Amino acid sequence: MPMQADDIAEMIKEGVPGAEVEIIDLAGDGDHYKAVVIADAFEGMARVKQHQLVYAALKGRMGGELHALALETRAPSKG
Amino acid sequence: MLIDGLYEQIFNASPMGMAIIDRNHRVLRTNTAMDRINGRKAAPGEPGAQLTPHIAETVRAYVDTVFQTRSAPEPVRLTGRRDGEATLSDWHCAFTPIAAESGARVELCLAVITDLGVIHDDTQRFEAIEADSRQIAAAFQDNVVPHPAVLTERDG
Hints:
The structure holds two protein chains of two kinds.
Chain A: H1 5-15, E1 20-25, E2 32-38, H2 47-57, E3 68-74
Helix pairs in contact in A: 1-2
Chain B: H1 5-13, E1 17-21, E2 26-30, H2 32-38, E3 46-47, H3 56-69, E4 76-81, E5 88-98, E6 108-118, H4 123-140, H5 148-155
Antiparallel strand pairs in B: 1-2, 1-6, 2-3, 4-5, 5-6
């Protein structure tokens, strides 16, 4: 059962407080999403660490309910 | 040959997988690294979905974005699961428009794909790959000369 875009956004916002989250259904199939996550918490944090925060927020749904995710993360100061 | 001179050398020698894709998502050219990712040599004109099948839908969406915007989207980390494998895998992808020979209507997309394997948390390696992908994509942007046969086929 694919995940809904709103559910993904909510989980990320819960795991990364204050984050701006945009979810785009890339293939229109509810299974291939792009997540753009902008958060103060990412300031000064390596990109991989930013990704780890997002994956942790998804609580193991990646690879299960969520088949594929294209992930872009940045701090607000990075434009 | 779709590319000339220095770009041909970069294309061939790059350790990152590179594919030149047209508007119809046909793969016109791959380099050795891309063939290694796919486990075989791509046939010219082969549907892009047959390459990198685990991330094909996402790649397709990004290629469409390149053609729609005529610009390079932000390079992206793709995470997904290969068929039959429980562990998540990572790919790093950059895309850019190429083939801007003066007066030509042909537009192509260069996909730069690195198969990172099992999901990884090596910050230094990831950031190095990200920087290299970005630089290669930028170097190729609007700098590749399309082969006359491709022009004839596509403009005719």
